[in-house]
Amino acid sequence: MNKKEKHKMTAAEKREALWAWAFIAPTMLGLIILNFYPVINTVYQSFCKTGDFGKGNTFVGLANYATVLSASETWQSLLNTIKYAIIEVPFGVVIALVLAVFLNKKLIGTSVYRTIFFLPMVCAPAAVAMVWKWLYNQQFGLFNNLFHTNVAWISDPKIAWISIGVIGVWSVIGYNMVLFISGLQEIPGDYYEAASIDGATGIKQFFHITVPLLSPTTFFIVQTRLIGALTVFDLMFMVMDKTNIALQKTQSIVYLFYTYAFTNGNKGYGATLVMVLVVFIMVVTFIMQKAEGRFVYHN
């Protein structure tokens, strides 16, 4: 009897538990409505043929997967996405690391420079796209006028994907830089003092102290930015017009998903494209997790 009374909640504990549920309920509902349900629905729709006006879906099994995996545009868009990631991730990480090392020093105007480099992260994507489209414009763009050239920066299929990648690098440098600065401030200064006493130059200190001790931060940035690059959409959607002849050579797989799901109204096919991308990202993430023990130094 005493044991049962010991586990019985008092009125105050019941009120406390009720308030706890009241506070977490909005977050739980948000996760269920905005995350869990869309995921389950996407998986389901990938096995269906979309009916008229998005209703009356017909279960077709693996037919969508067979069509998607045999379509050349699927592999082309996936290749475009990988090419974009190859530009954005390495250059975005290396440039941000170099900037972080310089801006981590006590220099005049350091805060101003940090703010300037971080500004692209807080700029509206639509404004960024408008500015870069003007810079790349073949007739009256700044780049062609500055270099006295006549290059179709975003209309030539051979170089358009590089131009888009440059915008991506410019957009993420500030974010990566802030994370690197945070990681640099966690490195004890004793390491650098001991290295200076031993006669190590700044470059040697960078490669033998900074880079190894920053490897956990670097790995986190590379992994998150790789996932972000593989799911890029807004940048390409706003820079590349539908009439652009280079669209087929630059559109990402998420852009292709948007075209089928929301422009063509074929949500089943679009959901299948998303599932293919999810599987690809899971494979990439698995490989990176396996490589963590080899390339990441934990002091």
Task: Describe the overall structure.
This protein is mainly alpha-helical. It folds into 2 domains: about 10-60; about 65-295, MetI-like fold (Orthogonal Bundle). Helix content is about 75%, strand content about 0%. The chain has 14 helices and 2 strands, in the order ααββαααααααααααα. It has helices at about 1-5, 10-45, 65-70, 70-105, 110-120, 125-135, 140-145, 160-185, 190-195, 200-215, 215-230, 235-240, 255-265, 265-295, and strands spanning about 50, 60. A two-stranded antiparallel sheet has the order 1-2. Helix 3 (about 65-70) packs across helix 14 (about 265-295). The chain is globular and about 75 Å long. The model has no long low-confidence stretch (mean pLDDT about 85).
Name some characteristics of this structure.
14 helices; MetI-like fold; 1% strand; mainly alpha; 299 residues; two-stranded antiparallel sheet; 74% helix
N-C termini distance: 54 Å
> Helices and strands: which structural class?
mainly alpha
CATH class of the largest domain reads Mainly Alpha
CATH superfamily grouping of the largest domain: MetI-like
Q: Tell me the number of helical segments per DSSP (H or I, 4 or more residues long).
A: 14
Shape: globular
Along the chain, the helix and strand elements come as HHEEHHHHHHHHHHHH
Q: How much helix, percentage-wise, in residues?
A: over 70%
SS elements, strand count:
2
How would you characterize the largest beta sheet? 2 strands, antiparallel
How large a portion of the residues is in β-strands, by DSSP E? under 5%
Low-confidence stretches: none
Q: Classify the oligomer.
A: single chain
